[in-house]
Amino acid sequence: MSLTPHRLLTALRFAGLLGGLAALIALTGPFTYSQLGLPFPDTVAHALLFYGLGALMLGALPRSRTPDLAAVLVALGIASEVAQALVGREMSLHDFAGNLAGAALVFLPVYAGRFRELVRTHPHITFAELSRMDRRQGDVPGEPRQRLTAP
Fold first, then answer.
1. How far apart are the first and last CA of the chain?
2. CA distances from 32 to 51, 55, 65, 144 (A)
3. In Å, how far are 15, 38, 51, 109, 122 from 10, measured between CA atoms?
4. Among candidate residues 95, 62, 61, the one with its CA nearest the CA of residue 79
5. CA angle at 123 for the pair 120 and 124, rounded to the nearest 5°
6. How does residue 82 score in pLDDT terms, banded at 50, 70 and 90?
7. How many angstroms separate the CA atoms of 88 and 27, rounded?
8. Within 13 A of 103's CA, how many CA atoms are on the CB side?
């Protein structure tokens, strides 16, 4: 059995499902953080968890837009804190800050790479012109696609 991109993608998706299930159990399980015996604060654990989930999302969902994945990860961070409150555990802004830090640490390098690409390929075009050049514009049914060529 040779390794192909499809097999690796399937493995990443399976790992993402297992990671999501483990996160659900860790965040809403009937135990406290101190019982886990981790050598770092709870906020750091949240940051590491959401960094891992974000990395799995980036690898397992290659056709999804990065801003959409980041928004889903932030929504999961909010949902995890609400879920903790619903099961009788503590809802904490510090934990949510850890969730946001983990999401930022995984997505900021992606945005930095995109910025570097724009600097190399279109250094003198405004962001408004870049937005009009975006091939994803006009994907709303009944709205025509706009085409703009770079000067």
1. 49
2. 21, 26, 35, 54
3. 9, 30, 20, 24, 35
4. 95
5. 160
6. very high
7. 11
8. 19
Residue 42, both tokens? 């709870």
Tally Cβ neighbours within 10 Å of residue 81: 20
Chain center to CA of 19: 13
DSSP state at residue 147: -
Give me the residue label for tokens 């250094």. Answer: 123
pLDDT of residue 149: 57
39 backbone dihedrals φ, ψ, rounded to 5°: -85, 15
Instruction: For residues 60 and 12, give the distance between their C-alpha atoms in angstroms, rounded to a whole number.
Output: 5
CB atoms inside a 10 Å sphere around CB 114? 11
**Residue 100 burial (CB < 10 Å; 0-12/13-18/19+)?**
middle
pTM of the model: 0.79
Query: What is the Cα–Cα distance from 17 to 56, expressed in whole angstroms?
Result: 9
Helices (H), the chain: 5-28, 33-36, 42-60, 66-86, 93-121, 127-133
Encoded tokens for 64: 């999804």
With tokens 């570097």, the residue in question is 116
Q: Which two tokens stand for residue 13?
A: 């998706």
